[in-house]
Amino acid sequence: MHFTSEQRLDDILVEREFSLGDVSGVLWTPASASPSAPAPLILMGQPGGFSIQRMLPRLRARARASAEQGLAAVAIEQPGAGDRLALPGAAEAREDLRRAIAAGDRPREDVIDRLILPLVERAVPEWQTTLDNVLALPEIGDRAALSGGVIAIGTRLAAIEPRVVAAGLFAGSYVPRETMDDARRVTIPLHVLLQWDDEGNDRQMALDLFDAFASNEKTLYANMGGHTGVPRFAGEDAARFFTRHLLPVLEGASR
Fold first, then answer.
1. Nearest-5° Cα angle at 208, 106 to 117
2. According to the model, what pLDDT value does residue 227 have?
3. How far apart are CA 149 and CA 213, in angstroms?
4. 107 close to 57: Cβ distance less than 8 angstroms
5. What is the Cα–Cα distance from 172 to 209, expressed in whole angstroms?
6. 8 Å CB contact between 55 and 157
7. Contact in structure between 145 and 243 (CB atoms under 8 Å)
8. Class of domain 2-79+120-253 (CATH, top level)
9. Whether the Cβ atoms of residue 24 and residue 66 lie closer than 8 Å to each other
10. Domains of the chain by residue range
11. Maximum alpha-carbon separation in the chain
12. What is the pTM for the complete model shown?
């Protein structure tokens, strides 16, 4: 892991860009984080196909809100996004998906598989390598949680990665049958956000996926509105979810 830049944005947040092989990323830590007071980590996902640079203002705002709670955050460039090589067949699969949605048809399973499964297979090991390196830093604690991004990636990570103790997922997009199978192996606490009128996503598929999760603690947080209509208070509730599971001692002491 090679840090390429570092800047202290304000009294709360330190931002460091890094490279990890051919994967680039950004790590945000609370200014107060230290080896004697390490910060738990949030893995911040992005929508499929969006580069870190395009999403940087939103990612930075999420990271600052996390830092105010004493949490670090990290984001990495997704396969096929930014300057990374496109995944083979992804552009064609995405166009097939768009055509089906525009025609009012349900996308075929093979289209969903061609678009999502290569992304999951590439992204999940990259997230695990990122965890290996970031959690080894003395100012970062040993607890991590997922926040947002492509739900198929988050579901696979939540199913197989023991260092991830909680996940906040954005319900949406079409998911492969394999993701349903992954969901049945997920047992960690979940906070799933669903925009009820999300025009580009399949609401019933999102509900079926939520039902498939095997977690004893899982919350479906549904709001009226489209994909970009998430209310501010929904983010505040998600922040409380992460605080509860990443800072249990602190949270318990505040009651």
1. 65
2. 66
3. 17
4. no
5. 10
6. no
7. no
8. alpha beta
9. no
10. 2-79+120-253
11. 57
12. 0.90
